[in-house]
Amino acid sequence: MTEEERDRLAGEHVLGLLEGEAAAAAERLAERDPDFAAAVALWRARFFELDLTASPERPPAALWQRIEAGIAAPAAAPARPVRRAAAWGALWDSLAFWRIAGLGTAAASILLALGLATLWQQRATTPVLVAVLLTDDRRAGAVVNAFADGRTELLPLGDIPVPPGRALEIWTLWDRARGPVSVGLIDRARTVRLRVDDLPRARPDQLFEITLEPATGSPIGRPTGPVLMKGTASRAL
Amino acid sequence: MVTGDAGERSAPGDLAAALRRCAGGDRAALQAIYDAEAPRMLGVALRLLHRRALAEEVVHEAFLRIWQRAGSYQPSRGDARGWIYAILRNLALNMLRSEGRVDLVDDFGPMELASEEEGPESIVMRLSEGSRLRRCLEGLDAVRRQAVVLAYVQGLTHGELAGRLGVPLGTVKSWIRRSLLALRECMA
């Protein structure tokens, strides 16, 4: 790659014009090629001022709380000096002991892994919460399944007519103060995994609904179109 | 590095120091960065993603990454604020690309655009008078300037730019290439 090509790639990368594999390749190149990384840094510096033209938006108070909760994951417990008796000391230093202990631990790890895998499959395939979304005429139009690992999916039960230029947006209401939050946008009725990773786990009576919105989703982050169906979550047995 | 006017909310040195403190596990330092930058970051994410819930999600994720990666920030490779916004922009662009918005060009009529968003020309006018970027952007043909600004600010792809500006894909690509060359020379 010539210097000029490399600089162009860096510029297009910073403009956000690279997609998919090209974008990933540029990221990798920036990690191992210091010259490319420098070119990227230079383009970032050149364009950065444009970011400052964005109007500041006041974030909801809950946003910082979520970030704080996210970084509060328990840190490694501080190392505590272990007091050990002389006999323990000898055992501790004995190679034979560790060989046997090692085998035992390995066997236990395998059992634990098998157990966890089985448990995981059960947890992953059986929803813990189900919401049946009903249309105005009380017809079941779709089901929302929430699994123990937090994965949540929408399963339409039939076709949902979508006019051209419009899309189906899926919302959930977990906090009345915050209002409905968009968890998915689909162009037609199809099974879709809902984007709930940053929301608290779904709970019983949590409302899910589908509205008709512009193709790119509601422009204001709140439902604007007619509610096509809605329902609340119940615990699955 | 940055000559933005109203945008200056915290001195670059403060942010670099705050990142060092984050790397040392100081949560108050992360909160200081949040207080200084989160509103602007949310504004940047909103311009790219259009939807508030998604923009908030990206800012959330960006702060988790800033916290995790603060130790890898190297002042020699650019200023702290640029580093923070690069994290935000990458996350937002990834989300934008994974949204499957291939229909955007067709569905995004000009009327919607006018009512909802600030056009590229007025964004350029928001750059400070003495800004070199502004002077250099103003040196480009209007339509090329719009292509560059729309790509950066709204995250439009080559194809989306072609649709929005009503020209063939190859034309957009060559506009961008030449604009990058001209900007690079002008800003040297």
List the helices and strands and how they pair.
The complex is a heterodimer of chains A (237) and B (188).
Chain A: H1 3-15, H2 20-32, H3 34-51, H4 61-71, H5 86-93, H6 95-125, E1 127-134, E2 140-147, E3 152-156, E4 166-173, E5 181-186, E6 192-193, E7 207-214, E8 227-235
Antiparallel strand pairs in A: 1-2, 1-8, 2-3, 3-6, 4-5, 4-7, 7-8
Helix pairs in contact in A: 1-3, 2-3
Chain B: H1 12-23, H2 27-49, H3 52-69, H4 80-98, H5 104-107, H6 110-116, H7 120-126, H8 132-138, H9 142-154, H10 158-165, H11 169-187
Helix pairs in contact in B: 1-2, 2-3, 2-4, 3-4, 7-9, 8-11, 9-11, 10-11
Task: Please name the defining characteristics of this protein.
heterodimer; A: 237 residues; alpha+beta; Immunoglobulin-like; eight-stranded antiparallel beta sheet; 40% helix; B: 188 residues; mainly alpha; Rna Polymerase Sigma Factor, Chain: A; Arc Repressor Mutant, subunit A; 2 domains; 11 helices; globular
In short:
The complex is a heterodimer of chains A (237) and B (188). With 237 residues, chain A is an alpha+beta fold.
Percentage of helical residues of chain B?
over 70%
Strand content of chain A: 15-25%
The end-to-end span of chain B amounts to 13 Å
| CATH class descriptor name of the domain at 127-235 in chain A | Mainly Beta
Q: Residue ranges of chain A: pLDDT <50 for 5 or more in a row?
A: 74-85
The average pLDDT of chain A is: 81
Q: What value does the Rg of chain A take, in angstroms?
A: 26 Å
DSSP strand content of chain B? under 5%
CATH homology-level superfamily of the largest domain in chain B: RNA polymerase sigma factor, region 2, helix turn helix motif
Shape of chain B: globular
- H/E element sequence of chain A: HHHHHHEEEEEEEE
Strands of chain A, count: 8
Which outline of chain A best applies?
Answer: flat
Number of helices of chain A: 6
Low-confidence runs of at least 5 consecutive residues of chain B: 1-8, 100-115
